[in-house]
Design brief:
2 domains, 16% strand, elongated
């Protein structure tokens, strides 16, 4: 050990003494930090998983890019062909895997005397088809009391408002699937229908509300939309990404994630300052030893640095233990979740309501760096508490301390 680095060796021996009970203080302090770090990591990973799942559902439901009329979201029923839209223009764009026309309209749905007004999205081309039958969101199906195989009647609301002696007959469609909750918003209170059938209901043959672009790489959505809006699209048309379609929902998730991070960051800070209080007690017990070091000519700064490194080292150990602990919890997450739901009861209903059977998990390097940085910062700041006492300690008084 070099003469100038005695303080590092002193901090190491304080963390891992060769005998005595000091090692238990280090382990228990590190364990407190590890538990807080693990809790923070697990929560951010689950929130990140939900974020990625919802982003994927939004892309699947609405396409990476939607080309609609200016100021519209696809429900106006504007015929884009009349606006000068060329089908081949979109299909020829680089990175575009598929182009699907769609039309979204509010319709009245009736089943066995139960009525509901809900957004219905028509998808697919008449030539290629998009399957047959009606896909109902879970909440809409519950409101109508409809199940797979039942027949639901659909009617345009304007037909009722127009009045008159004769009303158009509603179009019947068979329910072929119930969409789970949370599927891009359609599993809650919406429905899907082949585009040709929707055009027949409203008498708008050839009309579409927009075109959904499926991309080879979803990360190209924003630059491609910017390119389209830069003068490539005919006047009166606008390209919006899936981020705009689900912007409000994604903002809410980001706000919840930030709130949970701040809440659990407080737990990390509490663990760090509890560790610092234990280290402050150790400074009191070692007052005579510190006084002896001062009498031998050691500077207060080097002694304070040794105790500061001890505090930061304990935090680093807790951080290294916390990440594997979080990985273990996340690996067992589904079993732990089912045990909790079974304990509180009605677990299957909760899983069906939120529309998932497995907890999604995703954590970015940015989140990991934020957790590691905050944990090390908190434990480092907590080390200031014992350091202040050392900097104000008088050698003669310290040697007489009992």
């Amino acid at each position: 050990m070099a003469r100038g680095c005695w303080w590092a060796y002193y901090a190491w021996k304080q963390l891992f003494p060769s005998r005595g009970r000091g090692i238990f203080h280090t382990l228990f302090s590190a364990l407190a930090v590890a538990l807080a770090v693990a809790a923070l990591t697990v929560v951010l990973a689950v929130m990140g998983g939900f974020h990625e799942k919802i982003c994927r559902q939004l892309r699947e439901a609405h396409g990476a890019i939607a080309v609609v009329a200016d100021g519209a979201t696809g429900e106006a029923g504007t015929s884009l062909a009349d606006a000068g839209m060329e089908w081949e223009l979109l299909r020829s764009l680089p990175g575009v895997a598929a182009v699907e026309p769609f039309w979204e309209l509010p319709l009245l749905l009736e089943h066995r005397g139960r009525w509901a007004l809900a957004p219905v999205r028509g998808e697919g081309t008449g030539e290629e088809g998009n399957g047959h039958g009606l896909l109902l969101g879970r909440l809409l199906a519950e409101e109508l009391g409809a199940r797979v195989g039942d027949t639901v009647r659909l009617l345009e609301p304007e037909a009722l408002l127009a009045g008159g002696d004769e009303l158009p007959l509603p179009v019947e469609a068979d329910v072929v699937r119930i969409l789970p909750a949370g599927r891009g918003g359609w599993g809650d209170g919406g429905a899907r229908l082949p585009l040709r059938e929707l055009q027949e209901i409203v008498g708008g043959e050839g009309h579409v509300g927009g075109y959904a672009l499926r991309l080879l790489r979803d990360r190209d959505a924003l630059p491609l939309a910017t390119y389209l809006n830069g003068g490539i699209l005919p006047p009166g048309l606008h390209a919006r990404t899936w981020l705009e379609a689900g912007g409000e929902l994604l903002s809410m998730l980001a706000l919840e994630k930030a709130a949970l991070f701040l809440s659990l960051a407080c737990a990390v800070a509490m663990a760090a300052f509890c560790m610092a209080s234990a280290l402050a007690m150790a400074v009191v017990q070692k007052t005579q030893e510190i006084g002896l070091l001062l009498a031998l000519g050691c500077s207060r700064g080097r002694i304070a640095l040794a105790f500061f490194l001890q505090c930061a080292g304990t935090g680093a150990i807790g951080l290294l233990l916390g990440f594997p602990l979080a990985a273990l919890i996340l690996r067992l997450r589904d079993g732990l979740l089912r045990c909790l739901l079974a304990f509180f009861g009605r677990g299957e209903e909760v899983l069906a309501f939120y529309g998932f059977r497995h907890l999604p998990v995703f954590i970015s390097c940015r989140d990991l760096l934020a957790i590691a940085g905050f944990s090390l910062l908190a434990t480092g700041l907590a080390g200031i508490i014992p350091v202040r006492r050392i900097l104000r300690l008088d050698p003669s008084t310290a040697l007489r301390h009992e």
